[in-house]
């Protein structure tokens, strides 16, 4: 997924939803807090409160305080051919 957030554009405590293409299925919805070294999965919050993960298998929802301290580590399975938009 790469670096989805840029620390220069995120204000403290902001919620994001990372879109998943229609041909993708979320197998594991999780992210890691690099502040407390805690992996958060499916509607949980890390020990220090910097990261909350929600959305389960529907969406990749994230509420964060400091984006530079978060690493995305979800597992998404893609099936079939992706749809080309505008083409």
Which SSEs are present, and which pair or pack?
Elements: E1 14-18, E2 24-28, E3 30-33, E4 38-41, E5 44-45, E6 51-54, E7 60-64, E8 70-72, E9 75-78
What is the strand arrangement across the widest sheet?
A: 1-7-6-5
Radius of gyration, whole Å: 14 Å
- Estimate nothing, just give the exact number of structural domains: 1
Straight-line distance between termini? 24 Å
Total E-strand runs: 9
Write a brief caption for the model.
The protein is mainly β. It has strands at 14-18, 24-28, 30-33, 38-41, 44-45, 51-54, 60-64, 70-72, 75-78.
Architecture overview:
The chain is 0% helix and 41% strand. It has 87 residues and is mostly beta strands. The chain has one domain (14-78). A hairpin with a 5-residue loop joins β5 and β6.
Task: Supply database-style keywords.
87 residues, mainly beta, four-stranded antiparallel beta sheet, three-stranded antiparallel beta sheet
